[in-house]
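Example A, followed by Example B.
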Amino acid sequence: MNLGCSSFSWETRDGRHLLGRTYDQFGDLRANRVISVPKGHPCAPGLRTDGNGKPSDYGFTGMAVLGFGEAILVDGVNTAGLMGALLHYPEYAFYKDTAAPGTVAVHPGRLLPWLLSRCASIEEAVREMDAVTLVDDLTQGSPLAAHYILSDGSGETVILEPDADGLRLHRQSIGVLANSPDYIWHRTNLRTYVGVTNQHKPPQTVVGYELRGFGERLGGGFGLPGDYSSPSRFVRLAFMKEFAVPGENELDGVSKMFRAFAPVDLPEGLAKADPNYEVYEQTLCTSVMCAESGIYYFAPAENRRISAVLPPEDTTELQYFELGSVQDIDYRNKKEHQNG
């Protein structure tokens, strides 16, 4: 399960806190569902249920990959306002063989539900990590290389990275994450683009010759990298977060956030898995969640209309929601429309 992905946190003008991410992968989303887990549902730390699950203190909603026993939650928001996402972290993720004394062995694919089921805030999640050891049991045959971004209603965004020197917690981060290398490398790499601006650049004289940009205006992020590598996506998303106009409220903010992911939205065709097969890595789904409302918004690549799942109701049943892979079009001038 090699996820590409880009993520950032944002705030609306009226104080709503959002966390969003793109879900980039080869293949499709047939094994994925949006799940709604109610308060009190047992949460196990491993990929296989072995009876050691603890009743959750909070319900949560998010995207999950099924088929490994316990669902691998790749992002989600709980009823207390804690939000998080798992992103691929190849060649950099390191895990212990066994749990440290006094800690619980948690599989990397189960860390998000473990935190969302037990923690109401970033502060509680940070404290909880002292009682956790990430241990990959290789159920999938290869390590699940992952790092994590967490945010809540306080506006703080934390990055969690299981590196060779241990679990690194980056407090008060800039609220942007992509894939490898590590967060500090990405943040340092931003210095390469110190001259990027969203404003008009005036003419410049070089060896007596006046240079003017093509077009009426030259600005709009001139100088940003244009490929879809992890370092380039991190840079583009960081400047997108800096320059993008915040939403007025939750609905406006969610709509704008989906648009803000455009610079890192990987279209089908640019990243081929194998020269002999028509299989491509692409952005398969984009999701945005809100700390204050607990609503989980998502839109798969095949259906650009935004769908939403409300926070878990007062129930004991775990619910699964299809992503909706058929394009849902709102025809304005016909009551009914039938293709073909």
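Example B, a separate protein, is given below in the same form.
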Amino acid sequence: MKQTHQFGGITVNVLLIIMLVVIGVLIYILAGGPMPKFGQTHGVVSPSANDNEIAPTFVPSPGEFSDGLINPDFSQSYQLDEFGSGLAQRDIFDIDINEDGIRDRITRNRNENGTAHFYDEYKIELNIDGEFVDITPDGFRTTEGAECALTKIKFIFQPDFRVIKISRPWQDSWETPTMATRTIYAFNENNILAPVSSQQLKTVCDVSDLF
């Protein structure tokens, strides 16, 4: 009889220990957030195909070309048509570009055409008295393909705002190297974003290599 009581006491103690461990695990999970699902890694965000969801921010790898625009204030992906063409993504950046203390706006639209070729189109707007005024120079869009890019654009914000555009003409095929030209845009005395210099660089296939 005494042994039965001892065995029962041990069983109760074991059950209490198990309950305490389970409670501790539950407290840990609630404090540290949900445990990752199978196949999911912390810190990795997968793109969403839904139109109304925010697209992940693109962060270039070291050595990879960047247009200088990161961490958009608004980002949305869109459904392409049955041919895989159309507006793929829109990113909007609220940035003070003319140093007047008011946030202006740069919009980047990624456009696909159902092939390996695509382009990014940029729109630059100054916030003047609460109204956004388009000051985008002509031809502010990239020309890109699977083999190489013919036109790329990079935004520089320090020490002063300027935009570098490097482009080359198409000839024979996408892989045919041609002479690339670098054009730098900056604000002139009339607060207009205009070319301030232009220089031929070298003959290349991918102009990304010249940034």
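On Example B: Strands lie at 74-77, 85-95, 104-113, 118-128, 131-134, 143-144, 149-156, 162-167, 178-187, 193-204.
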